[in-house]
Amino acid sequence: MNRVLIIVGLLALLPAVAFAQATYYVDYYANNPGFDGPFDQVVRIINAGTLGTPMTSPVGDICANIYVFDNNQELIACCDQVITPNELDSASVASQLTSDPVTTLIPTAGVIKIATTPAPCGTPLSASDASLAVVFATHLQVTGGATYVTETQIQSSPLSTGEALFLPQACSFARYLGSGRAFCHTSAPGQ
Fold first, then answer.
1. What ranges do the domains of the chain cover?
2. Please, is 95 exposed, middle or buried when counting C-beta atoms within 10 Å of its C-beta (0-12, 13-18, 19+)?
3. Angle at CA of residue 25, ends 96 and 43, nearest 5°
4. What is the dotted CATH code of the domain comprising 21-178?
5. Nearest CA to 52 among 132, 134, 156?
6. Rounded distance, CA 175 to CA 158, Å?
């Protein structure tokens, strides 16, 4: 009888061990002044080296899949970027993430979602693992007529199966509707 209970107990633990929850990063942008504005917000993505080192690249490379939404929950731009181990990649909200929206209207506020997967880009988002990268973002806070820039490290969130399927489909649809628009991009700092 005791053996049966032990086996049932171990079988109950098996799904929790076998299926790791996909995770990703969710952040916001606000007070976006647009491309010519006096202030900007920046998203910084660091390959944590979880899968390899700079000496083993392309082993250890990750793909940062970025999805940019406006404040009406409409996907306006998307992109992906390979990041080598220990590399810092960044994106300006005004000039790289929101400057070419599918809607042609530059949003002042919205949401940015980043799913990191093992390279190459195109890996299903169900494999997204926030432990592959560390993400920081600056934000513009406007109080009493003054603008302040703050920076935070973005914490990971669970990525549902529905969201993992929706994001790439929404990206394809936005690019199709945009006829060459809805592309964002990132770059190494200083480039």
1. 21-178
2. middle
3. 30
4. 2.60.290.11
5. 132
6. 26
CB atoms within 10 A of CB 144: 4
Lateral strand order in the sheet of 146-153: 88-92, 42-47, 133-143, 146-153
Closest CA to 129 of 116, 142, 146: 116
184, 113 contact by CB (below 8 A)? no
Distances (CA, A) of 30 to 12, 95, 109, 111, 118: 45, 14, 4, 9, 30
Under DSSP, is residue 126 helix (H, G, I), strand (E, B) or coil? helix
pLDDT tens, position by position, 101-154: 998 899 999 999 999 999 999 999 999 999 999 999 999 998 988 989 999 999
Q: Which residues pair with 138 in a beta bridge?
A: 151
Measured in residues, the chain has a length of 191
Helix (H) or strand (E) holding 149: strand 146-153
* Element housing 142 (H / E): strand 133-143
pLDDT tens track for 56-72: 999 999 999 999 999 99
